[in-house]
């Protein structure tokens, strides 16, 4: 998930409601493991495990099903790889040794056939990538000096080479925040539409790009077919969808729901589609609309249905009412656009088993949140090294990825624990920042003279209520086997993630980070870029750095 996403890195997002019996463990590990990247020149297409097919030609809808150009039913099996919607304006994970092909090959090997690619209008307009990228590791793509839009081109091209499709997801207008409506003062509706038309035209000859997710998670004031034109998301989605199809009539138009439904009920941001039956989105080009709710477990927000005495058996009825009926009644297909969990509680495990069973039984398309391990609350499909598969999550998804039976997680003794009760405010979905798993780091040592080995800069690249991400750039002054940067932070309570550094804290006092992994040593004039995500009430402003 993004600033209001359970989950993207570099952002936080609230929601009112606001990302398996598997084969034998050894077989599962064999299926899911992808070897480490030997270098960008060895393109990962050679390593793809063909566990799922790509659609033939462009997709369209027929009643409650998605079909390919041969009119064969097709289920979209997607995961989100975020970053192009954050202040970094580049898919996350590329700051280490991960390459674009390696990430895509890993996604393909897990059984997915599609990548949901979030972006912001701000990043589309940017003239340069703002986040950290290991350009050497990704030298095959010639990314240095390129615009975020050029990076999007590359991801789409490499997705095609790896046998994957792309859904473009307008996740945010600005990279700093999620917006409740499809427009803001800085990004009016005219810009929203013109950017979508540009993208539709840009990829109109490439069926790799199968759909346009018009706006991520309408919430708050957003309405459906009622109220003023300024808040009517159903009418806006009709205008936006028609504009996109005027540029490329072959795309699927993916329409998310709202938080506050016409019957007075509230659900997840983007999750409410109960009004579609009476007021569907009708476009000038038929057979293009796919509705896309989002759904999460109690660890993100304590929706009332999680405390129902019949939980989790009550969940299918909740989903039927809010969005499942749309596909069941043949109105249009459903693509569950986001769902995910760290599977850290019994309640979350029950929710996951239930929603996977529901998707499997109804042959519904979906997009899991997320591939990224740096997604707040949910985590991702790989560990913080960005390579090692999270086998427990993949086992939970196996019924809809590879067709194995649904897992029934064992209940703890003596009885299942109650579902957690997050605060009554919308879930803050902080999209934590890239997190490369650092190895153990030696204690920094100063030169015999005591002079630091580096100069360094510190920048809070994103912050939210309760945490921030700091980017560190160290430049070597001499040859040194190690280097470190420390600063005071009177609010810090936890190191969440780090990449290129190993960090420790003195709670509510200070942070100390030592170079690790690819950034462990330093040479004169050599620059090392690293970063850390911290839990802290607020980010310090221009802290004084202590260097070694």
Blueprint (SSEs and pairs):
Layout: H1 25-32, E1 60-62, E2 65-67, E3 77-80, H2 100-110, E4 114-120, H3 121-125, H4 148-161, E5 165-172, H5 189-202, E6 209-213, H6 233-247, E7 252-255, E8 289-291, H7 315-328, E9 335-336, H8 346-362, E10 365-368, H9 391-401, E11 454-464, E12 467-476, E13 484-488, E14 492-499, E15 501-506, E16 510-515, E17 527-536, E18 546-547
Helix pairs in contact: 5-6, 7-8, 8-9
Characterization of the model:
The chain has helices at 25-32, 100-110, 121-125, 148-161, 189-202, 233-247, 315-328, 346-362, 391-401; strands spanning 60-62, 65-67, 77-80, 114-120, 165-172, 209-213, 252-255, 289-291, 335-336, 365-368, 454-464, 467-476, 484-488, 492-499, 501-506, 510-515, 527-536, 546-547. With 548 residues, it is of the alpha/beta class. Strands 8-7-6-5-4-3-10-9 form an eight-stranded parallel beta sheet. Strands 11-12-17-14 form a four-stranded antiparallel beta sheet, with no helix packed on it. The chain has a four-stranded antiparallel beta sheet with strand order 15-16-13-18, with no helix packed on it. Helix 5 packs parallel to helix 6, helix 7 (315-328) packs parallel to helix 8 (346-362) and helix 8 (346-362) packs parallel to helix 9 (391-401). The model is unreliable at 1-7, 9-51 and 411-449 (pLDDT under 50).
